[in-house]
Design a protein that fits this description.
Pfam family, one: GDP_Man_Dehyd
Oligomer: single chain
Strand content: 15-25%
CATH class: Alpha Beta
CATH topology: Rossmann fold
Radius of gyration: 19 Å
Protein name: dTDP-glucose 4,6-dehydratase
Family: Belongs to the NAD(P)-dependent epimerase/dehydratase family. dTDP-glucose dehydratase subfamily.
CATH architecture: 3-Layer(aba) Sandwich
GO molecular function: dTDP-glucose 4,6-dehydratase activity
Keywords: Lyase, NAD
Strand order of the largest sheet: 3-2-1-4-5-6-10
């Protein structure tokens, strides 16, 4: 297969690229990322070296049809769209970029996939499109869309576009909606890496509100295996929820991190809650389990331990982000790729 992976220098995208290179080494993988603030070329270390003839990285913006079209003209079997602005806090202060990237960008890819006859299009979405749950119940694929932030609204809009391209044009489209991911390479604005970073530096750990918001935590490698199944066996037009059935309050997550690092609970600093903060997410993943045979391999206790150990062992990776040094590394690597392409 020849696969275009967009957003492949971000957290989940880079993990998926590594997963696919290990699981399907004969596949041709074209990795496109705009290398915005959340993209990190060092997430792809070991893949960008010369000699990987069936792997290529291109710096590009999915909103730019002129830049994307040549990639489709070469022929593709599948597109997996991870590219998105994803931080809820940023969507509250800067909603415009979320609409253009998450909606206009997804539409650009769908239109090109239709034009050039791409065999499969997988739109990577989120459980946040469903809104919030009470103390009981689970999100299913038939739950109504009720997004509560500009981020989740933009992802819901992209999902509806993907669905429309299946219904109107007969494209083989799947939508996956996952619960909160955690694991290596996650940008340290998100809860788990942020709290690990602060704890390691003995800085206060900012926890929104009362800390009792509940999320269903999914280790990123399990998410990757689920997407792989959807890519190869997903039924056209179907939505697949992907969840870990690991519900934890934010306080429980932070407490686990502090205990693992031997830090005191006194580091927790409750801060003003963000606007529209959903209270609880929880995924019913029975459909992908029964229809595609997926099951997660990482229970929460194993996954969170592996995650904490990764960030401790990769302190330099974290430091480059905190100092901004990774941005110049992105620019240098992208310039090198461009020179090789032109030669």
């Amino acid at each position: 297969m020849k696969i275009l992976i967009t957003g492949g220098a971000g957290f989940i995208g880079s993990n998926f690229v590594h997963y696919m290179r290990g699981k399907h080494p004969s596949y041709d993988i074209l990795n496109v990322d705009a290398l915005t603030y959340a993209g990190n070329i060092t997430n792809l270390d070991g893949l960008t070296e010369q000699g990987n003839g069936n792997y290529r990285f291109v710096r590009g913006d999915i909103r730019d049809r002129a830049a994307m079209e040549p990639l489709f003209q070469a022929g593709l079997d599948a597109v997996i769209n991870f590219a998105a602005e994803s931080h809820v806090d940023r969507s509250i202060s800067q909603p415009d970029i979320f609409v253009t990237t998450n909606v206009v960008g997804a539409h650009t890819l769908l239109e090109l996939a239709k034009t050039y006859g791409v065999g499969k299009f997988v739109q990577i979405s989120t459980d946040e499109v469903y809104g919030t749950l009470g103390p009981a119940g689970l999100f299913t694929e038939s739950s109504p869309l009720a997004p509560n932030s500009p981020y989740s609204a933009s992802k819901a809009s992209a999902d509806l576009l993907a669905r429309a391209y299946h219904e109107t044009y007969g494209m083989d489209v799947n939508i996956t909606r996952c619960s909160n991911n955690y694991g290596p390479y996650q940008f340290p604005e998100k809860l788990i890496p942020l709290m690990i970073s602060h704890a390691l530096q003995d800085k206060p750990l900012p926890l929104y509100g009362d800390g009792l918001n509940v999320r269903d935590w999914l280790y990123v490698a399990d998410h990757c295996s689920a997407i792989d199944l959807v890519l190869h066996h997903g039924k056209a037009g179907e939505v697949y929820n992907i969840g870990g059935r690991n519900e934890r309050t934010n306080t429980q997550v932070v407490t686990t991190i502090l205990e693992a690092l031997g830090k005191p609970a006194s580091l927790i600093a409750h801060v003003r809650d963000r606007p529209g903060h959903d209270r609880r997410y929880a995924i019913d993943a029975d459909k992908i389990r029964t229809e595609l045979g997926w099951k997660p391999e990482f229970p929460y206790e194993r996954g969170i331990r592996a995650t904490i150990e990764w960030y401790v062992a990769n302190a330099e990776w974290m430091k480059r982000i905190e100092t901004g040094a990774y941005r110049s590394m992105n620019d240098a690597a992208a310039a090198g790729d461009k020179e090789r392409d032109e030669s």
